[in-house]
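=== RUN LOG ===
request id: a7f3
mode: sequence -> structure
chains: 1
length: 77
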Amino acid sequence: MSQFVKYCIKDLKLNIVGLMCIPPLIDDPSQYFKNLAELAKINNLSELSMGMSNDYECAIKNGATFVRVGSKIFTDD
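=== RESULT ===
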């Protein structure tokens, strides 16, 4: 993945500032979030978009800078 990020930045001249992931619903998201945070660190990327209404707390603990909490806004849970 690091080679792909470098390719996007150097060869395609894209301004990559972060990464995003949505882990599978049936798995513990922690390892996915940790892996993405490590990949961002290796590539010197500052933004991490990870986590949704059901796992945003875990995402924040693992370094998320953006979370998507749409269903929490529209429900009383």
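=== NOTES ===
The beta strands are 18-21, 47-52, 66-68.
Residues 7 and 20 are 18 Å apart (CA to CA).
=== END ===
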